[in-house]
C-alpha cells in the first residue's frame, strides 16, 4: 500500500512477485488500488489491475472514517485522465454510487475535470442526466470479493446532476461539454433548483451568461416548491438569488438579458428585498436603477412594499437609494402608517434622521389612521433616542390620537423618566403638563396608577396640578391608593397642598385613608402633612342616595 501510495512501480512489481495480498484493506477500507488511483500512479494501477482485476470496483469500506468511494471516483475527482482511461478499459462500473449518492461523473463535474468528464460521457452517455441519489444509502455487504459493490438508494429521487454541480462551481468548460451532449437544463433537483439557480447563487457570471444565451427560458425560471424545498426558497428567481448573495456580476448579466425585477417569491419578497439582505450597495443600486426605469409611478405598490420593509428593519442603504432617486417617502400604507411610523415603532433613529433631514414639510407630524404620530409611537415604546430625533425636527408634543392621548400620556403610562424629561423640556410645557385624555386622565394620574414614582416626582416638580380628577372623579391619589403604590403615595402626601382637595364631593377619602393605613399606618399616614382630613368615610359606608365614587 505504501509503495502504491508513493508510486514506486518497481517496488510494487517486486512485492507482487512475492505474492503480496492486493485485497488487504486499511482501517479506512482502502486497498492498494485505491491508493494508486487516488494519487494518479498509472503504472502502479496497471500492475495492481493485472494482478487482480476483480478489485477494480471495490469501494472503500469504512464510511465512519471517510467517504465510501471506488478507485474510479477517486481518479475522477482528482483528474487523473490516464488512470480513468485505464479503469474504463478494464470495465470499471461508472454507475456505482458513493455513500453520498454520487457516481464517478458527479465527482468529475464537481471538480471541473474536463478531460475526465469527456471520457466518462464517451463511455456512458446516459450518465449525463443522472442525479445524485437523495436520502441515505444502504450498502450491500462489502468484502474483498470480486463482486462489484453497488449501492441501493432508499429514495431514488433526482438530486443534483453533473450539470448542476458544474454550474454551481463555475466550471465553464465542463458546462459547455455537457450542453454539447444535450444535458437537460430544465431538470430540477429535489430541492426545486435548476442548473441556472446554482450558477446564479454561486456568482458565476460566465456560466450564467452561457446558460441564458442558449436557453432564454431559464432567465425568470423559479425555484419550485418541491417536497424538500425550504418554504423561503420557493418562487425565487436566479436574479433574487444573485441579489440576496451579493453577486454583482451575475446581477449585471441578468439585467443585460432583461430579467424581470417585478416578480415576487412565494414568501412575498421582491428582488430589492433580497438585495437588501446582502447589504451590498452595488447590487442595491443596480436594482433600484432598474426599478426606477420599470416603475414610473413613484407611489406604486412596489415602492410601498420596499418602504415598509426598509422602515421595519431600519435599512439605511435602501432609504439612501430611495431618497437619491426621489421616491415619495410620505407614502401611507393600508393602516395609515408611513415609513416614519414604522421606523419609530422599531427604534430606528438613524433611519428617521435620514428621512427627516430631507425637509419634508409637516411629515414629522403625520398621523396614522388612529391619529398617532411618530412621537406618540416612540413614547409608547419608551424610546428616548427616537424621541430626541423627532423633537429635533419639530415634532408636536400636543397632537392627540383618537382617544385624546398625546406623547406625554404615553410616556407617563410607560414610566420612562428620561423620555418624560425630553418631552417636559418642550416650550409647550404649560399646555402639555395638565392636558387630559378624552377620559379626563392626566399624565400624573397615569403615572400614579402604574406606580412610577420617579415620573410622579418629575411631574410634581414641573408644577402639574395634583387636584385634577378624571371623568370618574379619580385623582392621582385615588388611583395610587387603589393599586397600592406606597412610594407614589409618599411623594403625593408629603407635599404641601390645599386641604379643600380632601373635601370634594364624591371623592371618598376614607377609602384612600384606609388603604394607606393598611400599607404603613405609623410611618406614612401619621407623619403626612397632607392628611388633615375634613371627613373620614369609606366608600363602602357612603350615605344612602350618594353617587358611588369608589373603585370598580
Topology:
Layout (H helix, E strand, L loop, with lengths): L1 H4 L3 H9 L14 H7 L3 H10 L19 H8 L2 H9 L14 H7 L3 H10 L13 E3 L11 E3 L8 H7 L3 H9 L14 H8 L2 H10 L23 H7 L3 H9 L14 H8 L2 H14 L6 H13 L2 H9 L14 H7 L3 H8 L17 H8 L2 H9 L14 H8 L2 H8 L4 H4 L10 H7 L3 H9 L14 H7 L3 H8 L15 H11 L1 H5 L27
Antiparallel strand pairs: 1-2
Helix pairs in contact: 2-4, 3-4, 3-5, 5-6, 5-7, 6-8, 7-8, 7-9, 9-10, 9-11, 11-13, 12-14, 13-14, 13-15, 14-16, 15-16, 16-18, 17-19, 18-20, 19-20, 19-21, 20-22, 21-22, 21-23, 22-24, 23-24, 23-26, 24-27, 26-27, 26-28, 27-29, 28-29, 28-30
InterPro entries: Ankyrin_rpt, Ankyrin_rpt-contain_sf
Keywords: ANK repeat, Repeat
Pfam family, one: Ank_2
How does this structure look, described?
It contains 31 helices and 2 strands. It is mainly alpha-helical. It folds into 4 domains: about 1-185, Serine Threonine Protein Phosphatase 5, Tetratricopeptide repeat; about 185-225 and about 235-280, Ankyrin repeat-containing domain (Serine Threonine Protein Phosphatase 5, Tetratricopeptide repeat), CATH 1.25.40; about 295-395, Alpha Horseshoe (Serine Threonine Protein Phosphatase 5, Tetratricopeptide repeat); about 405-550, Serine Threonine Protein Phosphatase 5, Tetratricopeptide repeat. Strands 1-2 form a two-stranded antiparallel ribbon. Helix 3 (about 30-40) runs antiparallel to helix 4, helix 9 (about 160-170) runs antiparallel to helix 10 and helix 14 runs parallel beside helix 16. The longest helix is centred in the middle third of the chain and has 14 residues, at about 280-295. Mean pLDDT is about 85; it is low at about 135-155, about 495-510 and about 515-550.
